Amino acid sequence: MKVLIISLAYLPFVGGAELAVKEITDRIPGVEFDMVTTNLDGKQKEKEIIGKINVYRFGRGLLSKYLFPFQAYRKALELHQQKKYDLVWAMMANQSGLVAVKLKKKFPELKYLLTLQEGDSLLRIWSRTWFMRRAYKNIYWRADFIQPISNFLAQRAKKIGYTGKIEIIPNGVNLTNFAKEFDQKYIDDFRRELGLKEDEKVITTISRLVYKNGIDTLIKAIKDLPIKVLIIGTGRLETKLKALAQELGVKHKVLFIGYVNQLDLPRYLKVSDIFVRTSRSEGLGSAFLESMASGVPIIGTRVGGIPDFLKEGETGLAVDVGNPRDLALKIKEYLDDKVLYEKIKNNGRALVLKNYDWQPITEKMERIIKSL
To answer: Which residue spans within 172-253 are E strands per DSSP?
Structure first.
């Protein structure tokens, strides 16, 4: 079986969707995977093998994102004429979906699988696609199968009018990496390396530094709390967030760590007491699941796919969007109530170990791919 994956970005550019593709394709036998994607920084090879995927890149830099539907279709057409794919698999209902729909129209026998991963609100999507509304809806309507990663995204597909086959299959967690234990001396040494005091409580957030992830809410919440914050990630709001910390007088409480490789994230989580992401929108939120697997209790908002795994007082604590006072109270609740803290820590870890292991998730994806 031959599958062509259409993805706007791919490794080494890392997000939940990119990690999901790698984890799933690595585990599926008997399928030849090719991918067309952008050369986002202009420094990647035009063709390389990553895991089990033959990756074809084109373009150079950010401009390639805007030209993606045209360049990707041209490359996909060339590859399909050579290899005769059985399935085109679009990662997200964005430019990738537009390419898949165009291929499907030209080759009706080609099956089309759409994975929904996007965390943006439908309102924001409508504001960006008003000039191509029917083309955007066609990304959903023309799919032979839709695989959303959360109930939130499944409902979106139905609201847009999709009536075909659909199955919710979430992203998973690399349990070998995130559920592993560390020697206490290693943890103590790493705390000292980060400049953390022995008894200092630590909040960690892992995300792109963009508006939707609500990092400004976290910075505003910690003014009167005896806490240190590790902000892991990069993004266009980094300068503004640093300025906000300075303005609020909490600069000494906030460490901007920057980019951290996926394999190195567990050691940051192991020195953390609480994970926080006050998302304004969220497709699912893999960083929450990774933190839960590491034994770090979470605080999140009731948006997007987060309610799929965050049950108030059972597997996490929920806060209102954009409400620093509410967040400060929930952080204090964790710090003051050891029984609640341990309950949520243990429940959260057990939930991820049971429901978010990549192997059974991959088996479901394999069944879908090979049935189309």
So the answer is: 201-206, 227-232
CA–CA distances in Å: residue 199 to residues 13, 14, 136, 226: 36, 33, 52, 10
Please give the model's pTM, rounded to 2 decimal places: 0.93
Instruction: Collect all residues with Cβ–Cβ distance below 8 Å to 371 and sequence separation of at least 6.
Output: none
- The answer to whether 110 touches 73, Cβ cutoff 8 Å, is no
Nearest to 27 by CA among 53, 7, 54: 53
Mean pLDDT of the chain: 94
CA angle 7, 9, 10 (to 5 degrees): 95
> Are β-strands 227-232 and 145-148 bridged in parallel, bridged antiparallel, or unpaired?
unpaired
Query: CA 287 to CA 204: how far, in whole Å?
Result: 10
CB 119 within 8 A of CB 304: yes
Count CB-CB contacts under 10 A for residue 335. Answer: 15
CA distance 143 to 152: 18
DSSP code per residue over 25-80? HHH--S-EEEEEEE-TTS-S-SEEEETTEEEEEES-STHHHHSHHHHHHHHHHHHH
CA nearest 3: which of 26, 27, 28, 35? 35
Q: By three-state DSSP, how is residue 318 classified?
A: strand
Per-residue pLDDT tens digits for 75-103: 999 999 999 999 999 999 889 999 999 99
Residue 100: CA atoms inside 13 Å, Cβ hemisphere, count? 36
Q: Would you say residue 61 has pLDDT above 70? A: no
Cβ atoms of 102 and 132 within 8 Å: the answer is no
CB 51 within 8 A of CB 25: yes
- Residue ranges and CATH numbers for the domains of the chain are 2-171+357-371 (3.40.50.2000), 175-355 (3.40.50.2000)
Residues 228-250: tens digit of each pLDDT: 999 999 999 999 999 999 999 99
